[in-house]
Amino acid sequence: MAANFNRVILIGTLTRDPEVKYLGNGTAVTEISLAINRTFTDRNTNERKEDVTFVEVTLWARLAELAGEYLAKGRPVMIEGRLQLDSWEDKTSGQKRSKLRVVGETMQFLGSPADRGVPGSGGSGGAPSGGPRGGGRGQSSSYGGGGGGNSGGGEPDYYSGSSGPPDDEVPF
Q1: Which of 64, 53, 164, 148 lies closest to 106, judged by CA?
Q2: d(CA 167, CA 112)
Q3: pTM here?
Q4: Is residue 80 part of a domain?
Q5: Could you list the pLDDT tens digit for every one of the 172 residues in the chain?
Q6: Is residue 158 in some structural domain?
Q7: What CATH number is attached to the domain comprising 65?
């Protein structure tokens, strides 16, 4: 049997501020929208052109809370996740509908510390350098120091994940 692989990596700019909502069981969820630019050369005119794709991403649990706390419209971010097909029946027309969505499982804030609002860097409060990386459903988060599952919280543990040391500690 052939192996399957469902992985998406997106780098884009937020088109609106995240709005965190909570389900009845207390789980946080937020929908963010990314604008992803693609620059290419038109074969016919040899002109440089730009194409923008807008992608909706769903974030859950601690990752949703981190997005609501640290992200804002215009901020660059990298999202890793998976594709999910949602299907339903339209109540007014009775037709079957479907939508392909991205479910974010990890997130990395991009840009300079000032762009991310890191204290002491000229920003207005916000995420630590290197940005938090959070887990989706059932995954641990390296932002949170040792908590498993969706617990998160605590102080950032820069050295346990792949995010590396804070920018101000890198010797180059």
Answers
A1: 64
A2: 9
A3: 0.64
A4: yes
A5: 778 999 999 999 999 999 999 999 999 999 999 999 999 999 999 999 999 999 999 999 999 999 999 999 999 999 999 999 999 999 999 999 999 999 999 999 998 766 555 544 443 333 433 444 444 443 333 333 333 333 333 333 333 334 444 444 444 3
A6: no
A7: 2.40.50.140
**Is the separation of the CB atoms in 10 and 57 below 8 Å?**
yes
In a domain, 70, yes or no: yes
Whether residue 123 lies inside any domain: the answer is: no
What is the total residue count of the chain? 172
The tokens describing 4, both together, are 């399957």
Instruction: Name beta bridge partners: 40.
Output: 49
Domain that holds residue 79: 8-109
Give the count of domains, the chain: 1
Separation of alpha carbons 34 and 18, rounded Å? 11
